[in-house]
Specification:
The chain is α/β, with parallel strands linked by helices. Helices cover 42% and strands 15% of the residues. It is built from 14 helices and 14 strands. The strands form three sheets. Strands 4-10-9-8-7-5-6 form a seven-stranded mixed β-sheet, sandwiched between helices. Helix 8 links the parallel strand 8 and strand 9.
């Protein structure tokens, strides 16, 4: 029997398409230097090493090197070893997991919290499970929701409606068009990570009240960084009590790993009992849970670190605007510089790394729409004046080298 499918050729075609479009992604091998963030060592493909500064990390506050976090992880691994030994249902629930869930429930003012191995899994598992709990559920999802939310909504088998990004009028139209008796849920984000804009939380909650819908918010790029205790934008704006399910991460501002939802005890219990993404996954290592709990507890009290973070973001945006570079500024900590072409974006990224020791990863389609390719900077309290100067000088020189447009500084 003759085989007609050339699998190798098809793989070549798929990969070549990415190369031709300038969208092929490469891993940058880096070793972060504990006690010296944001500095790291880059191991080049030829095996040589070069010192670099990381400007695109999600460890927004440098908590991955905080002594409180590291001490908690060391203590836990010394006490109980490396792995958890099982799923949460089968020997994988420890005092460290329970302690972390209690910290998270308290953070958001909810009855309960449920821990997952990542915020991606938390979104996917929860949103794909909800129609099992509420038959006939219609999910209304913001067009720019994270891929994990899109995936959870896509494969849940229920009805879905996509509303234009942050468009309250469009969301109302969709809600009005559906059966008023059908169970409904509105899924959106507090901070959208690619443009750094905020979701209209209060207005969405008003619509949810009017139409009897549940609310589901992704606070991944806000927890730890906004609100008097780091509860996110919903805490900052005193709206957490109006949100039914809050999703967050432990891998960004908290500097460790893992994701979670915070909700009513009954909601968490139901998701825990029905979501395959929770039931069949080995739980986080106890040391990771211990470090995350210590980080959450610490950031409930460290407003100064949050203030430093916002100040650094404002300084970077002002200096990039001073160069006339096309940045998006919605008032959050995320600093996107729009290049608008995947090839130019990669050239800028490559030269910043090789010539200036500055690491910022190019962001291309499908993460962002074609024509909006960008460099996305994430300043932090551990980026000092010297690091900032080097970045500004490098961007100024390379922007001219690539003959890219600048804003009219006189306008």
């Amino acid at each position: 029997m003759e085989h007609t499918v050339d699998f190798s050729a098809q793989l070549d075609r798929a990969l070549n398409n990415l190369h031709e479009e300038g969208r092929y992604r490469t891993f940058i091998d880096i070793e972060r230097q504990q006690g010296n963030f944001p500095h790291a060592t880059w191991t080049k493909p030829d095996g040589t090493q070069q010192p670099i500064t990381v400007w695109c990390g999600n460890d927004y506050l440098g908590m991955g090197q905080h002594p409180v976090v590291m001490a908690a992880m060391h203590d836990a691994i010394d006490a109980v070893g490396a792995g958890s030994g099982g799923t949460r249902n089968i020997s994988g629930t420890t005092v460290f997991h329970k302690r972390l869930e209690a910290e998270l429930a308290d953070l958001h003012g909810k009855e309960s919290a449920l821990l997952f191995t990542s915020a991606y899994i938390a979104n996917d598992a929860t949103l794909s499970t909800l129609p099992k709990l509420f038959p006939g559920l219609i999910i209304y999802s913001d067009a720019l929701n994270h891929a994990s939310m899109i995936e959870g909504v896509r494969r849940n088998g229920g009805a879905k409606r996509i509303f234009r990004h942050n468009d309250i009028a469009h969301l109302r139209e969709l809600l009005e068009a559906d059966d008023p008796k059908a169970p409904k849920l509105i899924a959106f984000e507090s901070v959208y990570s690619m443009d750094g804009d905020f979701g209209p939380i209060s207005e969405i909650c008003d619509l949810a009240d009017e139409f009897g819908a549940l609310t589901y918010i992704d606070e991944v790029h806000a927890v730890g960084m906004y609100g008097p205790r780091g509860g996110g934008v919903t805490e900052r704006d005193n709206l957490a009590h109006r949100i039914d399910i809050i999703n967050g991460t432990l891998a960004k501002a908290y500097g460790v790993m893992g994701g979670y939802i915070a909700a009513s005890e009954k909601m968490c219990d139901a998701v825990r009992s029905y979501a395959p993404g929770f039931i069949f996954t080995t739980s986080l290592p106890p040391a990771v849970a211990a470090g995350a709990a210590a980080s959450v507890a610490h950031l409930k009290k460290d407003q100064d670190l949050r203030d430093q973070h916002q100040t650094q973001a404002k300084i970077l945006k002002l200096r990039l605007k001073g160069l006339g570079l096309p940045i998006i500024d919605h008032g959050s900590h995320i600093v996107p510089v729009i290049v608008g072409d995947p090839v130019h974006t990669k050239v800028l990224s490559d030269h910043l790394l090789a010539d200036y020791g500055i690491y910022v990863q190019p962001i291309n389609f499908p993460t962002v729409p074609r024509g909006t390719e960008r460099l996305r900077f994430t300043p932090s309290p551990v980026h000092g004046p010297d690091e900032m100067d080097k970045l500004i000088n490098g961007m100024d020189a390379l922007w001219s080298h690539c003959a890219l447009n600048r804003a009219d500084l006189a306008g």
